Amino acid sequence: MISAISAANAAPTLINLSRPAAGARRDDAPKNAASFSFGDPREAAQAMRKEMASRRMNAVKERMGTLSLMIKADPRSALKLAAELAKELKAAVKDYQDAGGRNASASDLALIRSQISRAREARSAVTPAPDAPATPDPAVDQGDGGSVNADAEARRAQQAYAAASSAAFQERSIERLTALEAVAVADNGFFDLVKGLAKALRKAREDIRHESHSALRPPSEDDWKEADAAQVELERQINTAPAGLSVRV
Asked: 69-72 — which CB contacts under 8 Å span 24+ positions?
């Protein structure tokens, strides 16, 4: 069975969430949906390309069983297949990388989840209670007949608007961070599987070498050179993949 190995601990990429400028109107927020969601056509195209790369990787995974069966029966053909699978897996990793995929680690996932938690706490702290009764302002001059000071009333309105704007900002931040978490989970899963397959190919090569000693048709020196080169290129493609989270907001 092929076991996935955990992603390398890359330095986490901080996700910067800037608050709206003081006094800014809600209408000043970015109008395009791509600012806080994955509705941008470019991101949809990237997701499709990632899906195609994942299918390519899964095709390699499905052929690993055939490789295992060939090792004892025909080590030379098995080595050629191992080289072919290494090349195909490298191509899948490159396709995934070119689509914006990154080698997201467990620490990256922990980082983004902690930021989601903090954003939710911030949203709860600034969300006004429904139907909350108005609290008299000591600065308001009630005067005869309970007349309201216009300046104090305006200050209360500004405070209520600021709280509502801050809550809306935190809600958009949560939505964006949640979408980024989904991307990071997918990236982490892809690279975990790829690393597991690369490890399985290394093990298959060891088994082929062992079986070659008693094989009637062992792999030639050129066969080993080609297989070695394919494995090295695969490992390099994995090890040089960009790490961390893919987007800052």
From this structure: 71/204, 71/207, 71/208, 71/211, 72/211
Tell me the pTM. 0.66
Q: Which residues contact 200 (CB under 8 A, 6 or more apart)?
A: 2, 64
Instruction: State CA 230 to chain mean position distance.
Output: 27
DSSP character string of 200-244: HHHHHHHHHHHHHTT-SSPPPHHHHHHHHHHHHHHHHHHHTS-BS
CA distances from 85 to 50, 96, 211, 217, 233 (A): 19, 16, 19, 21, 12
C-alpha span between 85 and 234 (Å, rounded): 10
User: 247: which DSSP letter?
Assistant: -
Summarised one tens digit per residue, pLDDT across range 136-186 is: 555 545 554 455 566 666 666 666 655 556 667 667 777 887 878 888 889
- Which tokens in the block code for residue 208? 């082929």
Q: What is the Cα–Cα distance from 28 to 105, expressed in whole angstroms?
A: 36
Q: Residues 81, 84, 86, 92: is their CA dihedral positive or negative?
A: negative
- Residue with the two structure tokens 């080698």: 103
Q: Terminal CA-to-CA distance of the chain, rounded, Å? A: 40
